[in-house]
Design brief:
Layout lengths: L3 H7 L35 E5 L3 H12 L3 E5 L3 H9 L8 H5 L4 E4 L4 H9 L10 E2 L3 E4 L5 H12 L2 E2 L10 E4 L2 E2 L1 H6 L3 E6 L2 H12 L2 E8 L3 H29 L4 H9 L6 H4 L23 H18 L4 H18 L7 H4 L6 H4 L1
Parallel strand pairs: 1-2, 1-3, 3-5, 4-6, 5-7, 9-10
Antiparallel strand pairs: 8-9
Helix pairs in contact: 9-12, 12-13
């Protein structure tokens, strides 16, 4: 966690949008791109992707399908073999990926993983203050402070190969919403922080992996938006689960109470699209014993990020910490891999619809 002094040091001046900038020119075709230094800023074709887990592997494959020249790296050799098998170049280190890429994307488990990929031995910044990629995009879900710290480090670098010796690489924090199914279907939503100039230049690339992008403001604001979104999601799931379990105890079937919610002011995504009661809705994790979906351990992680951020800025967030305790407890009880809607069964002791009626 950054200190107050460090946070002040990491505040970056806002970049003014330069509508004549070469970054805003339409991207060149993905194959046969010019590699001259003058064309590099508008070159989105050579993309390095680091982090080939459940989300990253699908996002990288969609970039390949969209025609980008992709090179990949992951600490998991088996994940790299899958990409090698479909003809995608694999690299031993993040630095090797950077040396051949115009744009870098990272999709990693935690703040410490992201920081290590950037600053660790053979990391993206291993070459000192000279960088080949003109744009670096981190889609990991991490705390805003780390996003801003890495953005500051990147802004202190200079682009390699610029004839005038100038040019500063840019960074975007661009976490996603939608989960594995949306990553597979290229229907993710990107929440993006950083300069608006870089955001507009990166938008075509992001839309090859998603259905929408939302510009959230300066560095770290994408990460802030993501943890706030997931905080609201956690609290709404707890509220819906608590109300449905109470309703069952008072003699109201969960399906009936759900219809009431969805026709009234309690309607929300947790009630009408992701209902936590087994037997009420098909095609959601509760209908398959809470398998798949968004793991409880990931929700607990995001709530930890929200709680740490709240402490950092001195904001009272009692529901954040209550939700954090509940989801951390579910993990300790062995439900960490179940979808986070399992809170209905394993915390509130709610009853499956077909069993209770």
């Amino acid at each position: 966690m950054a200190s107050r002094g460090a946070r002040a040091l990491l505040s970056l001046p806002k970049r003014k949008l330069n509508v004549s900038s070469p970054l805003l020119r339409p991207p060149l075709p993905a194959r046969g791109l010019s590699s001259s230094p003058d064309d590099a800023p508008s070159n989105l074709g050579n993309v390095g992707f680091i982090g080939l887990g459940n989300m990253g592997s699908r996002m990288a494959k969609n970039l390949v399908k969209a025609g980008y020249n992709v090179a990949v790296h992951d600490v998991n050799g088996d994940a790299m073999k899958i990409f090698a098998g479909i003809g995608v170049p694999t690299k031993k280190t993040p630095f090797e990926v950077a040396e051949e890429s115009d744009v870098i994307m990272t999709m990693l488990p935690s703040s410490s993983h992201v920081f290590d990929v950037y600053t660790g031995p053979n990391g993206l910044l291993h070459g000192g203050n000279l960088l080949r990629p003109w744009l670096l995009i981190d889609s990991s879900t991490i705390d805003p402070q780390t996003s801003r710290k890495i953005s500051a480090l990147v802004s202190n670098c200079t682009l390699k190969g610029k004839r005038d010796g100038g040019g500063v690489p840019m960074m975007l924090d661009a976490p996603v919403s939608g989960g594995v199914l949306a990553a597979e279907a290229s229907s993710l939503t990107f929440m993006v922080g950083g300069s608006e100039e870089a955001y507009l230049a990166a938008k075509p690339l992001l839309l090859s992996m998603g259905k929408s992008t939302i510009y959230c403001g300066g560095a770290g604001n994408g990460s802030a938006a993501k943890i706030c979104n997931n905080l609201a999601l956690a609290v709404s799931m707890l509220g819906v689960s608590e109300a449905l379990a109470l309703g069952q105890s008072l003699g109201i079937a969960a399906s009936v109470l759900t219809r009431v919610f969805n026709s009234s002011s309690a309607r929300c995504w947790s009630s009408d699209s992701y209902n936590p009661v087994p037997g009420v809705m098909e095609g959601v994790p509760s209908s398959r014993n809470y398998e798949g979906g968004f793991a409880t351990k990931l929700m607990a992680k995001d709530l930890n990020l929200a709680g740490s951020s709240a402490d950092e800025v001195g904001v009272k967030c009692p529901l954040t910490f209550q939700a954090q305790d509940i989801y951390s407890g579910l993990c300790k009880d062995g439900h960490e891999s179940k979808d986070f809607s399992c809170v209905f069964r394993h915390y509130y002791s709610g009853i499956d619809e077909h069993k209770g009626n």
